[in-house]
Amino acid sequence: MPSKVDLEIQIESLKEQIKRLQESEHKLEKELYRAKNIPQISRNNIILTEENKKLTELLKISNIIND
User: Fold this and answer.
1) What are phi and psi of 2, to 5 degrees?
2) Residues 52/44, Cβ–Cβ less than 8 Å
3) Residue 52 near residue 45, CB atoms below 8 Å
4) CA 32 – CA 28 distance, rounded (Å)
5) What's the predicted TM-score (pTM) here?
6) What's the confidence (pLDDT) of residue 52?
7) Rounded to an integer, what distance in angstroms lies between the CA atom of residue 40 and that of residue 45?
8) What distance lies between CA 50 and its chain's CA centroid?
9) Distance CA 54, CA 67 (A)
10) Mean pLDDT, 10 residues at a time, over the chain (67 residues)?
11) DSSP secondary structure of 20-41
């Protein structure tokens, strides 16, 4: 039968393990949130790239007209 001191040591060890697991869980939740947003960010980048191309063409046309 473990002594009271042994049990207290085990309890403290378990508390530390729980703390580390909670920290790991928090990090994983943050990574999951970012991963879920990557497709939307990619779509936004594609849209912005297309808009930039259009605006660049309009600027070229404007420069030709103004020259």
Assistant:
1) -65, 150
2) no
3) no
4) 6
5) 0.55
6) 94
7) 9
8) 25
9) 20
10) 90 96 96 90 92 93 84
11) HHHHHHHHHHHHHHHHHHHHHH
